[in-house]
Amino acid sequence: MSSILSALHVAAGSLDAYDQALVVTQNNVANSSTPGYVEQTQTFYAMPFNVGEGFAGGVRTGEVVSARNQYAEQAVWQQNTLLGQSQQDVNSLTSLQTYFDISGNTGIPLALNNLFQSFSAWAHTPTDANARQTVLNQAQNVASAFQQTATGLASLTQSTEQQIQQTVTQVNQLVGQLQGYNTQILNGDRNDAGLEAQVYSTLEQLSQYVPISATQQADGSVSVLAAGQTPLLLGATQYQLSFQMQQPADAPASENTPPPLAHILSSVGSDITSNLTSGQLGSLLNLRNTVLPTYIGDANNQGELNTMAQQFADTVNGLLTSGNISDAVPGDADGNGGTPAVPGVPLFTYATNADGSVNATDVAQTLAVNPDIAPSQLAAIDPGPPEVSNGIALALANLADPTDPADEISGASYTQYYGSMASQVGSGLSTATNNQQVDQSALAQAQSLRQQQTGVSLDDEAVNVIEFQRAYEANSHLVSVLDQITLDTINMLTPST
Amino acid sequence: MAGVAERLASAQSAVEQSCHLLLTPNPECLDRSAGALSLAIGELAAGRDLLASSTSNPRALAQICEIRSKVRLASRLLENAAAYHSGWNRILGSMVAGYTPHGAAPVVRPGRLAVEG
């Protein structure tokens, strides 16, 4: 009788165990599309079985084991960080490109081209009032084009700073959510698969903004570091990042107020900007601190747009002020009634400091036509010797295609210099677009690897790694042959210059 | 006999197929990827021989550049997957053989037992 009762007891225990396993399986199915969820497995253990001593055997449930593979998760985060960076690069450079028209149909290149044409027309008819007025009008267009580009870049700079602030806020919010999950885990919810799914889903979101590494502690909580060294979350303690704009420590003392640079500070005030080189935040910091200063300048650099604006204005002004508006009129035999030659006046102005020094990073934005100049005050006469009645106007027209290195900027004409600035942006955007496509594939691959690797047995894996090794060697050799053969063919088809 | 355009299109398709396979880098896909890459090499080599006689072919040049960008993608996917499995290999070593104070232990390869008699 007792053996029958034992058997019934064993059977009831086994039913309970399988009932629990069924619940785990149902939960797996229900959460198959839940972000961050991985399969949970109910483990079993056998009860002692020895009929002689009254142990009737049977099965009981053990722990529910998560199939999560931390290594595979980290690989996905790394690729997500790279994709976040390239996506942000594409967005930022697409905005930047709108200020640098390489076609020559708008903006600075069009205005410069029109001004050079007006100089040329003025050189043909140096006394013609209409030609002179056209020069002033086109000069005004050049100044406006520089101002608009500089204003646009300033606006992009400002919006980039806002995006950096929003990204830092987003990072802090996501880490705040993780802190909440950690608190729940530390309060006893450590085996909650749903909570674990939320933690890993949040970590994946976080990884697109900053490069992260996360480890699960013995108490079940997750520790998160940014860029491998700055703590964002340890246990139930969050370490917030902050953002501020400041001048670099090596900025020379000056009356100027160059644009400051963006800095990210850890919770203890350490500057961690240089560590954040990837992710969406890394991309924004690179745009704000490296790419934009190339054009608008910073404490140690005037910026190419300002350099171009200043050098162009100075060259035009230098030529005009070296010329004469009108010739000297000799006096009579007694030396009475003569008038001296009237020298030229500058065409362009830009902002200067109170001490007369140039505000180097403000030239493009303040470039304007001299408000005191009238068409009749444009100096066409080169006093020589020999004097040439349209010599200055001709010299100005020749700036379009300079032959004198003094009229060039960094060894190029003004149009070429602008073209080089614009092509830098275009080339950067093209690279970023390619990177984005590659990073999307790399992320898909990492997600696939995570899927493959979740919950596989170590024995299977030990066999697989040997197969992988052989397959990688074969593929790698073929890719390197293909790389070489495509390069050789490109070289063969590219006409030599 | 296939012309240059067909050869290049076939090579491009093979490299794209390899990229697609490398998105799921399991042993079977890697083997098929190697097959696709071998095919691409054959088509490109044949296409290049045909191109050698022509002086200029901008269309072929554009297509070769496109193929090259796909080869770069395949290379990146291969590097990533190889780095992933190499790291996983080290972890397995640690898990199978135990972590040592001097770093990850090498993977214990499955052994073989031969009985003769």
Q: How would a textbook summarize the main sheet of chain A?
A: 4 strands, antiparallel
Number of strands of chain B: 0
Helix content of chain A: 55-70%
Quaternary status of these chains? heterodimer
Shape of chain B: elongated
**Major beta sheet summary of chain B:** none
Kindly name the structural category of chain A.
Answer: alpha+beta
- The dominant shape of chain A is elongated
Give the mean pLDDT of chain A.
86
* Domain tally of chain A: 3
Q: Which structural category do the helix and sheet elements of chain B fall into?
A: mainly alpha
Number of H- or I-type helical stretches of chain B = 3
Could you tell me the radius of gyration of chain B in angstroms?
Answer: 21 Å
Count of individual domains of chain B: 1
Please trace the helix and strand order of chain B, writing H or E for each element. Answer: HHH
Mean pLDDT of chain B: 80
What does this entry look like structurally?
The complex is a heterodimer of chains A (497) and B (117). Helix content of chain A is 55%, strand content 11%. By secondary structure, chain A is of the alpha+beta class. In chain A, β7 and β8 form a beta hairpin. Chain A starts with a helix and ends with a helix. Chain B has 117 residues and is mostly helical. Chain B has one domain. Chain B contains three helices and no strands. Chain B is elongated and about 60 Å long. Chain B starts with a helix and ends in a 20-residue tail after the last helix. The C terminus of chain B is likely disordered. Classes of the chains: A alpha+beta (497), B mainly alpha (117). The interface between A and B is large, with 46 and 56 residues.
